[in-house]
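Hello, quick one for you while I still have it in my head. My current little project is about how a certain protein chain folds up. You're getting the sequence in one-letter code plus the fold written as tokens. Would you mind checking whether the tokens look sensible for this chain? Here's the protein in full, and shout if anything looks odd to you:
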Amino acid sequence: MAQAGAFGARLGRFLHLKDAPPSLVTRSLRGVELAVTETRDDNPIPGLSGALTPEDAFLVSLKLHDYPDCELWERGKCIMKRDVRAGATYLYDLKCDPRYVIDKPFHSLFFHLPRSALDGIAEQSGAPRIGDLACELGVGHDDTVVRHIGASFLEGLRRPSEANQLFIDHMMLALTAHVAQTYGGLRRNTELARGGLAPWQVKRACERLEADLGGTLSLQQIAAEFDLSVSHFSRAFRISTGLPPHQWLLRQRVKAARQLMTVRDLPLAEIAVAAGFANQSHFTRVFTSVIGVSPGVWRREMQGAPESET
């Protein structure tokens, strides 16, 4: 599900990339487009980066490559030089026209968070809207949550056919909430976080997910059926089932695949697609992580006969 995306194209121009970098996009908060984009250039065009159109939005950037002696600009002026560290998280206020001098290889993950998305998180959390994020130019944060979410997104960007929409929605929601709390001072209303879904809601939500093993439905679409916010639905679903929706869906795919594997002459590649996986490789990775053995081994054990991994 990776795509160029409007913001990915803007980042490409900003960094003078030959091609627009791939992005994963969600509209799970107020219909606003949130995007995560991987940018990399091992042989960049030297010079000052382009300009991003000023807007009431923020960039959260996880650096994947050291960038020593980085010349940082804001509002058309050179502000400082700082060493940018791989593994650190940096925040940029797009109202301030952040730019930098490109003079060495770079590799970063960028999350684009419009103000309206942060307002949506506050509203869904029953909390007041936050002010500006703590964006201090050149200051990197040792943020394990952003690193974890970033690593998950990197896998999705590199295997886009395996990144279902529920996964993208869930991870971007988690990232936005974390940023709002950690760098914006958001305080959630704990009263909203206690209960799960009603039994009929659990049943209906699970039926909707089972009917869409390919994962094309968004969290926003499912939550809207119960007149719930995305964050409320996602949290309540996890309380009720023990898993977030995208993980629950993966378990259902494995369940469907196990049922299909009782049909002895069905190839694993065909089973993979029928159960909602992107391909046989995706099927094997997920099945092995959940069950502990590969699909071929599991089927041999169930049927008590030798079989090839096809």
About this structure: The chain has eleven helices and nine strands. The chain has a mean pLDDT of 90. The first strand starts at residue 23 and ends at 29. Residues 91 and 309 are 47 Å apart (CA to CA).
